[in-house]
TrEMBL record:
Residue stretches of each WD repeat: 14-55, 98-139
GO CC annotation terms, alphabetical: catalytic step 2 spliceosome; cytoplasm
CDD domains: WD40 (cd00200)
UniProt xrefs under InterPro entries: WD40/YVTN_repeat-like_dom_sf, WD40_PAC1, WD40_repeat_dom_sf, WD40_rpt, WD_repeat_MORG1
Signal sequence extent: none
Subcellular compartments: Cytoplasm
Annotated organism of origin: Steinernema glaseri
Protein's recorded name: WD repeat domain-containing protein 83
């Protein structure tokens, strides 16, 4: 059942001043977040105060995704220039630029140990790089998808991918096997549940589905949000009891993970209402959501701004 505590308080909203914000991502402990812009930059924020801490530049085009390493020392990013870029957080310097993808990079993630970084691309591959090595040749390439890979998630021994060909793949690195399911529409967001037993997928057409990983059984389906045109993020709140999704009607939908009903819609009172909410990120340990639309970021929390 859903927890009673939901992130329904808008504690901050601010202009990122980097063109269209392509993605927003919390860091590993949720104290900071990253925004990726059409102005070719990545910005590091204290999102609760709307304070810009540092800007990272050097990408050749729009940055579509970014993430910080578990020790918060490196920021990885990728986008339309097809290059995986690694920045040093403290100095802002580019430590490595890795080429190899034949199309834009849609998603980047570090593994839980922070020794490998993964990049997923419209060329249908995921490339895995060991950042401890001087050579930045990929240690592994996952190339089974027949269309662009739009989304990516990782656990300690699994890699989940969602593709424009409608497929969801969960690679079990330890066992050397892969689970494959077909959703029928492009999979724009994929998340492993905290217990690692299920995978949550968001697809074009406005469907979020929870699939039992080991047998592909559909457990629950969530509908109500609008998802026809854009790549829309979904996420699982830290309670593991709610699923949150952006929507093309400018709202954020929070669903009960068991009952599948809509618990609340965030943003109904905003004036003017955003045209769409395509990107969002869930705080790793408490009820809080960072979301962005056009050039602006919004932070929704269960606490008031004075309590943060």
């Amino acid at each position: 059942m859903s927890s009673a505590v939901l992130p329904t308080t808008l504690v901050s909203s601010f202009e990122c001043q980097q063109g269209a914000v392509r993605a927003v991502r919390f860091n590993v402990d949720g104290k900071y977040c990253l925004s990726c812009g059409s102005d070719k930059s990545v910005k590091l924020w204290n999102p609760y105060k709307g304070t810009l801490l540092k800007s990272y530049t050097g990408s050749g085009s729009d940055v579509l995704d970014a993430c910080s390493s578990p020790d918060n020392s490196i920021i990885a990013s990728g986008g339309y220039d097809r290059v995986l870029t690694l920045h040093e957080v403290e100095t802002g310097k580019i430590s490595r630029r890795v080429r190899g993808h034949g199309a834009p990079i849609n998603a980047v993630l570090f593994n839980e140990e922070g020794i490998a970084v993964l990049s997923a691309s419209n060329d249908g591959t995921v490339r895995i790089f060991d950042i401890r090595q001087r050579s930045m040749d990929p240690v592994q390439i996952l190339d089974e998808a027949t269309d662009g890979i739009l989304s990516l998630d990782v656990s300690d021994h699994e890699i989940a991918t969602g593709s424009a060909d409608g497929s969801v793949r969960v690679y079990d690195i330890r066992a050397g096997r892969v689970f494959i399911d077909y959703m029928g529409d492009s999979v724009t967001s994929v998340k492993l549940t905290n217990d690692r037993q299920c995978v949550v997928t968001s697809t074009m057409g406005g469907h979020i589905r929870m699939i039992e990983k080991i047998n592909g059984k559909l457990l629950t389906e969530y509908t109500g949000h609008l998802h026809k045109e854009f790549k829309i993020d979904c996420a699982i709140l830290s309670s593991d009891c709610e699923i949150v999704s952006g929507s093309e009607d400018g709202l954020i939908y929070i669903y009960d993970i068991v009952e599948s009903n809509v618990l609340c819609r965030l943003g109904e009172d905003l004036k003017p209402r955003p045209r769409h909410v395509a990107t969002l990120s869930s705080h790793p340990s408490r009820p809080c959501i960072a979301a962005a639309t056009q050039s602006k970021m919004f932070i929704w929390d269960s606490l008031s701004a004075d309590d943060l």
